[in-house]
Every structure is written in C-alpha cells, then in structure tokens.
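# step 3/5: fold
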Amino acid sequence: MSLSPHSRLARALALAIPALLLGGAYVSQYGFGLYPCEMCWWQRWPHFAAVALGLLAFVAPPQRLWTGLAAIAILTSGAIGLFHAGVEYKWWDGITSCAAIVADDGGSALDSIMNTPLVRCDEPAWTLLGISLAGFNFLISTASGLAILLLLGKDRRA
C-alpha cells in the first residue's frame, strides 16, 4: 500500500529532524568546543532512537507506526530539553550532579580525567536571544514531533 503525501512528509521529517539536531549537537561539540553535560546526553538518546525508527519507516511495514514512534521519541527529547532548560534557567533543581563524559583515548586514565572539561548542567553553554541549546531542542523537537503526528493524523481523517 502506498503512503499518502502527508505520511511521506511525516516519514521524511521523522528521519531528517533528529538527524539534523544530532548533527548540530556534534558540530557544536567538536567544531565549537561546547561539550555536552549529562542532561545534554539524555536529550540525544531519544534522537538516536528516532533516527533508527525513521530509517525503519523507509524499509519495513508498518511505515506509519515507525514514523509515529519516531515522533514520540522526538517529543521525548523535547520534554527532556524542557526539563534541562528549566534547570539552566533555575526554574527547578536538576536531579543529577553535573558530569562530563571521560573519553577513553587509550592513554592514562588520570590524564583523561584531568583533561576532561567540567560541564555544568545548570549553566547554559551558549544562548541566542536568551534561549539555550536545551531550550532550542525543546522548541524544535516539540514542534516537529507534533507536526509529524498531525501529518499522520490527516490521513486518519481523510
């Protein structure tokens, strides 16, 4: 069975949005030195799942199911982004201590620990117009996840 134009667009967005957001996260990390805190990583995991589900939607039936699950994963990342932004803006306390991931570069463990930057979860690494990266993740992920679900819902009403 062929997908409607709405479902095809939803499927494309379900793959493209998390892939672009993850790409942006890695460019900011490796290109601009904005290392992720623990809550930043929490936001990435649902996007990894959404990319996998989005790819699955292109190769395996039921494609609408995989697309819908990808949208839910994107919304999950947006919810984590809202929580993280709230911690950054001091609206509420975080549930974790700030941490940085220690890279295993094959050298001395002590050198790796000492050279890993301390990344605070309650301080935004970068903002634009007062919105942190976590805030942008919330806005983009929530809007796109809802858009994908609305596009899928248009087929149900037709």
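# step 4/5: annotate
The chain has a mean pLDDT of 86.
# step 5/5: archive (pending)
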